[in-house]
Amino acid sequence: MLSEDRLQRRIPYLDILRVIACMLVILIHTPIRQYDTYYNTPSLAGAIYTVLVAVNCNLFFMISGALLLPVSKSGSRFIKRRLLVVLPPLVVWTVIYLLEHAFLLHNFTPRLLTSVLFHPVEGLLWYVYVLLVIYVTLPLVSKCIGAIGKRGVEVLLVLWVLSSFIPYQHGVFIEASQYSHNMFSAFANYYGYVLLGYYLHNYGLPRFSRGNVAIWALLLAFGIVVMPAFEFLVQGHFDISWQQHIDTITSDISVNNIAMATLIFVTVRHFSPERYDRQRHSASAAWWPLLSVCAFGIYLSQMLVLRQVVWPMTESWLDTAPVVVDCLLCGVLAFVVCLVLVLLLRMLPFRRYIIGKS
User: Fold this and answer.
1) What's the DSSP call for residue 170?
2) Domain tally, the chain
3) Residues 112/125, Cβ–Cβ less than 8 Å
4) Which domain range does residue 63 map to?
5) pTM for this model (two decimals)
């Protein structure tokens, strides 16, 4: 249990967001077991499921922006401290997944070793690779934010949101071969989520008028509902495969994910308390911080747990279940198993090198 001083330094809504993001990451990975069915069979339930869970890791980037910007420490001190949080666990879990590929999955190749500096041996570790680069460059970005101010950040975010429509342009607007070459190709990408988290944490949603809530509800609904519907219903007439539809919806830099991330962020913040209160809400003051500090370890261990524990355990009784039911049940079970594993690892004296600083 956290001390009262440490508990009061935490921000409840960011703890809740971290847990939600962790759960969504697991849920986006659970369809892998039924890959052919999920990615190649048109399904309304599968489409809705994809829209709801695709935001996953982007919430983590927003949390980083909310917590770390503006950078108050010296650049070298900030970078050293942040790298010590994520680099040792990355190395440890890279070795663990290499061993799994070699001795349990039997698909180890020398390329897994030669590419490890630039490409993760396990797909889910990509987030940590990107996070390392963000940490190294964040002090510079912080100075730029100070120079351009609130209005400058708003301009960058508007341009970034405009770039998020690009994944939807195949079919109706452009040829597939043109998809990766456009005027926004070199734009912010994941840094957009970092800036969005910083902006929403410090300023909230901009106010247009008295109808602020209604206007934002329509804008978010357009991104979350209208654009995915356009992708599945209209783009489908241009010989685009179901997997291409899924790839568009799950593209991290797409308007539906930005809208969903914004909706989740502002909603959780609105309904969360400003500070934890053990006397009035003892359960939330105990569980949300605990789940939050375990989230990084849960994230790192999830694929090992899915492949070696959850999928073998559930294959016999979930094999004939609908894909979405399979995904949800496996996701919840994987979260629980990962949590138990991380809680056990937290008992070790060198736990920070395995599951990060807690």
Assistant:
1) B
2) 1
3) no
4) 4-355
5) 0.92
